[in-house]
TrEMBL record:
The DUF6817 domain, residue ranges: 42-125
PANTHER family according to UniProt: E3 UBIQUITIN-PROTEIN LIGASE
Protein known as: DUF6817 domain-containing protein
Domain of life: Bacteria
Coiled coil residues, start to end: none
């Protein structure tokens, strides 16, 4: 008898209804705050620039989507849409010249949002993450960080609002872009070893690599979320719904093990005649990391294949809940909207007590 009732969270219908409109590619054009800005960004060629697992446009829109799902105010959502347009220490994608075009961008998004964008691009983001994770946020919520540039670097004191905004945008930024290729080239971020030579580590450098989910960054996102429980930060902005409203931690060793277990199943490294080993492996993965949807979704399909309809329904609902908390995929082999769409098919099939017996019939499944 399965212990699946303990494995999977309940589905929050309010959160689901908030996520469903964001599945439509046109959601951004309907957004009153972001739609007027989109043509200005697209005119700078962001749809043609490579960025991590897609294009720069995919990345900017994905970050803004999570922030929209997390009900962030317009200035924070605009920061998400524009968070690298002045360039930064990580990416050389300068779409606006900070020396000459700040006023132009202010005219489009307003001074408050542009201030956040400029500061986020010009501060040391690695140092920001290091200090937040080290608990160096002051009693009043402020944080001293250095600006990018040659030593000696100029310092700036972030307000509590800026610290909260930058932590939340960093969470969305990380989950949107991070997969195994970045685990390799940016290993141990924010303490990346910059001495590693590409020619020596050529195997790790081949893009996009095996496209495994990250084995180390979800726990870091959880830690950033936990930092938002700081008394001076907690009321600054709506807390993202991930990790039970940023209340829960994820141990790095649990994340790594869960990722490996999940990958062993999807790469068919488990016995293929019976379902029991793959099912047990995924159940263990979910227990170790219950905060991402993909392992729960795959487990729902295994339950359906085994005729375990009630367990499949619980797993599918749990997967859908986690997808709706993130607004981005953990397993980036397919996009977030595709994961949600297949999960809804699994949930529908489990509720109806049906699942195709023939392989070709899997191609005919449709949401009713």
């Amino acid at each position: 008898m399965t212990d699946s009732p303990r494995l999977f969270p309940d589905l929050d219908d309010t959160l689901l209804q908030r996520a469903l409109p964001l599945l439509d590619d046109e959601w951004l054009q309907r957004d009153a705050d972001l739609a007027p800005v989109l043509p200005v960004v697209l005119a700078r060629g962001v749809g043609q620039d490579w960025h991590k697992a897609g294009t720069f446009r995919h990345h900017l829109v994905g970050v803004a989507r999570s922030l929209t799902l997390w009900q962030q105010p317009s200035d924070v959502r605009l920061l998400g849409l524009l968070h690298s347009v002045y360039g930064n220490a990580f990416v050389d994608l300068v779409k606006f010249d900070a020396a000459s075009e700040r006023q132009r961008l202010q005219g489009v998004i307003g001074e408050a949002a542009e201030h956040l964008v400029h500061l986020f691009c010009t501060m040391s983001r690695a140092q920001f993450v290091q200090k937040v994770l080290a608990g160096e946020v002051q009693e009043d919520g402020s944080l001293q960080v250095e600006l990018n540039g040659a030593a000696p670097r100029q310092g700036v004191r972030l307000s509590a609002y800026e610290v909260a905004a930058f932590a939340i945008v960093s969470m969305a930024d990380t989950i949107e872009q991070w997969f195994s290729w970045q685990d390799e080239i940016f290993s141990r971020f924010p303490g990346t070893d910059t001495s590693r030579r590409q020619a020596v580590h050529w195997g790790a450098s081949l893009w996009p690599g095996p496209m495994r989910p990250t084995a180390r960054m979800v726990s870091q996102v959880a830690a950033l979320g936990r930092a938002l429980q700081h008394p001076a930060l907690k009321g600054q902005l709506p807390l993202p719904p991930v990790f039970d409203g940023c209340q829960q931690a994820l141990a790095p060793q649990h994340e790594a093990a869960a990722s490996a277990l999940y990958w062993s199943v999807v790469q068919l490294a488990q016995p293929l005649v019976d379902l029991d080993a793959a099912t047990a492996t995924l159940e263990q993965a979910v227990q170790l990391n219950p905060w991402v949807g993909e392992p729960q979704m795959v487990l729902a399909q295994l339950y359906l294949s085994a005729g375990r309809g009630e367990d499949a329904e619980r797993a599918a609902r749990g997967a859908l809940q986690q997808f709706c908390t993130w607004g981005n995929a953990w397993d980036k082999r397919v996009q977030w909207d595709a994961w949600v769409a297949w999960t809804r098919i699994l949930l529908q099939s489990a509720a109806q007590g049906s699942w195709p017996e023939r392989l070709d019939k899997l191609n005919n499944l449709a949401l009713r």
